[in-house]
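ingest -> validate -> predict -> emit
validate: passed (alphabet ok, no gaps, 106 aa)
predict: started
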Amino acid sequence: MSGASSQLPGELNAYFKSLNRQKRSIALDLKNPRRVEILYRLVAKSDVFVQNFRKGVAERLRLGYEDLIKHNPKIVYGAATGYGPLGKDSGKPAFALTGEARSGSL
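emit:
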């Protein structure tokens, strides 16, 4: 076997663990309206909602700011994009490592 593995013994890989330590999670099919209703119930009792969908996706899924304040008017809504809201790459998907690689910091 060549190279190093990021797989931890009997666990998820080290990259996943480093990004998700101390977090609880739930998986929902957000294209299913019944599952979106579950998310709305969570939003109703949450303080903060953060999303990093590609440009326009949150609104298409009915998860934009205007959608969520109907369920919790005090929600703090955070939206991040990999390449900002404007420009030729604004609609492209990204995550931390692609941004770091593209910036030359890796």
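Residues 48-83 form one domain.
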